[in-house]
Specification:
Elements lengths: L10 E5 L8 E6 L10 E7 L1 H15 L3 H4 L5 E6 L8 H8 L6 E2 L9 E2 L3 H19 L2 E11 L1 H12 L6 E5 L5 H15 L7 E8 L15 H11 L1 H12 L5 E8 L8 H13 L3
Parallel strand pairs: 3-4, 3-7, 7-8, 8-9, 9-10
Antiparallel strand pairs: 1-2, 2-4, 5-6
Helix pairs in contact: 1-9, 3-5, 5-6
Amino acid sequence: MSTPAPIADTIYFDLTPASKMPPYRIFLRIPKEAPPPQGWPVLYFLDANAIVGTMVDIVRVQAAYPLGTGIMPGVLVGIGYPTPEAYDSVRRSWDMGPPPGMTYPPHTQDGPEVRTGGADQFLAFIEDELKPVIASLVPIDGKKQAIFGHSFGGLFVLHALFRKPEAFSARIAASPAIWWEGAGIVDEAEHFVARTQAKPSGRLLVMAGEYEQRLAPFQVGAIDAADRVRGYEDSRIVDNARAMVHRLAGVPGLVASFQLQDGENHMSVLPGAINQAVRFAFGSS
């Protein structure tokens, strides 16, 4: 007889926004140790259904040996959806797509239209509804709150920085879809840089995989190689990520950096990016 394997030390609950949108599934891991006087640092992460196991294991293994790893304990808050699948592609398109957004044909014959542009509403849910719930459950250090997102999630992390820079002290954007919908996020970035009153504090880490802009060895000669090359030319994920960091490097109060993950593609970049996100959020230095 088999027994489902739980995610260690992790609970989840569904939280329905005040806007009456469908609920989010929130994954929560609280350290077993007594909290520090100022409360725990927090790492919020998107696409939790897909990555919560990896995120939790990285933290529970490394934070158990802080003198050897440099990783201190902290609270993990994963934002996902009530689905057994790794992703809810329709909902994440709306939640993580910056406005004004667009409408696209259904993914399947009987599916709904796919809409983007709900990122401001999603950010308001995190700030005004989710954060207070977490603070009611565990002591939180309001000065040490980080957010991690990959792909569309990375795009949202950048949007959140430009819309509400005080929301997080550390932001980690892995493989952000900067090219999405005419690269509108670049215009957001330029307006953000030009705003003299914008004085963000904290840090930004942008990452991309080596094989997100050129063929990996196993793809060379594949039947879809030419299509992939054209896609890489359109999205330019690595170049766009580097350019975004360069664009933001001179913003007072913001420390922006770029990392290239050797040997990784758009999906295989995730474990290494999650590890870097944990180090960025919970590192002792």
